[in-house]
Amino acid sequence: MLLINDMDLDMAYDKKTPKEARIAYFKEFAERINADNRCFNRLKNRLEDSIKLAIKRVEWNYKTAIPMYNPRQKKGSLLLPLALLDESHVDLAMVVQRHASGAYQEETILSLDYAYSNSRLITRPDSDWLKVESIVKDSHEAVDDYEDDEEEDY
Q1: Is residue 88 packed enough to be buried (19+ CB in 10 Å), middle (13-18) or exposed (0-12)?
Q2: CA distance 113 to 90
Q3: What is the pLDDT of residues 41-79, one digit of tens each?
Q4: In this structure, which of 22, 76, 94, 145 has its CB flanked by the most CB atoms within 10 Å?
Q5: Would you kindly state where each structural domain of the chain is located, as residue ranges?
Q6: Does the reported pTM lie above 0.90?
């Protein structure tokens, strides 16, 4: 795990960690990625490949794009699956917005649990990639992996 200022990634995501410390961690993290061209290019290429795969999945099956409502903006968007680590497993959801020109533009990226709760504002998601069962399973696996790592440290 990458340590920056005596903080690792789990601590940076922990809401108990002071906001200023979390912001400083991610700024330094971004600087380190930008300073390492090889790392930056690998991340960029993986994200681009994941977006291309998401678009292909929507072309194969329109139900892959899940409608979502954003009450703050009072706009509807679509959620697309992003498989970053393994093409057979969705890790995140990309929010895309349709513009007046008819083109879609990426707005942000959401965790699967957040994407699921936002999509539920419209309807129950009817897709093969955004299911409550897989979200719960993934969160339990993450907790199990974390507990296994802690046991190995002792």
Answers
A1: exposed
A2: 12
A3: 999 999 999 999 999 999 999 999 999 988 888 888 999
A4: 94
A5: 62-134
A6: no
